[in-house]
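Honest question from a wet-lab person: if I give you the sequences of every part of a complex, can you actually get the arrangement of the whole thing, not just the pieces? Trying it with mine:
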Amino acid sequence: MNDKLNIPEEMVPGKNYSLWADIKVNGWILASWPVIFLGDLWLFVHENCTFLLRVIIALIPLAMCLLWIRGVVRWIRGMDEMHRRLTLEACLFAITWTFFVVTAWQHLKHEGILDAVFKTSHSSCENLVLGFNFAGLTEYDFCYPLTILLLFSFYFLGFTIFNRRYK
Amino acid sequence: MLYTGFVMNNKPNNPDELILIDRQFSFRTAWNVCRWLLLAVVISVLCDWIYSKEVREWPFGWRMAEVLVKFGSLLLWCSDMAKWVRGMDELQRRITLSSILFAVSANLFTLLLWMELDGAGFFYKVFGRPFMNNTWGIYDVADIFLFLSGFYGFSYLFFKRRYK
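Yes, you can. This is the full assembly:
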């Protein structure tokens, strides 16, 4: 993205952290959060909105996610061989674990196991989980912002593990 | 000596052995690498596709055990895949890792897209009532397997061409 090579530590909180690089790479994903919030708020207020508008509101954050992926790919391509390998392994770790958790969660929801766990014995858990979904379209859904949060958490974990290994 | 720790036999593992349409496809390698995935898919097809109504009437503990067996098998499959990838030479490992990264990312994105569209009532509106399991969701291991294998096959052929 500029003359010098990108380094993965620019994205990880620490002494090499660069807010400017972070915004350049993760700008689209950061911008998608207020868009999701406003979209959910709008759907909450306008319950009878048209089907087409509902689909468009659902798709806008995912389009922004595609632009974010493009930015991350460009960032990784600007690294040296060693950092690229480290970052790719951390990304693979993060995406695989996020995918596993999201799939398992959706499967548990579909099987009715989450209902059995949260609705019978722990009423406070029920409120907590329902609170994740602002518009209340689908209960217990592992919605997009939570998925991104999970992805970042696993990335930091994976990066720490692989960085230590390469040291 | 370089590969002694991770290979399943004496020669480096070859990713072409897992591509069904490739002439180097090997049942033995596929079984060694994907047996746990096969177990998860078979359980998923039986419990989520064929006998889904019966399974829903099972006691909570049994249903929980069924889910744990499926997802536990997937974890074991990931471990086998990691061993298999570590047993490759540098170039093949790079191609395979790129393919896996692409496949899992595309699958995660598809899952998110599907969830959002399902939540917005897109499938119900366009295709009507679901014909299976009372849902348009793709949350079963068997569904995920179909998408994942499709994305992996496509990305492997794509990255292989690029490295040639």
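Two things worth pointing out. Residues 108 and 118 of chain B are 15 Å apart (CA to CA). Residues 14-162 of chain B form one domain.
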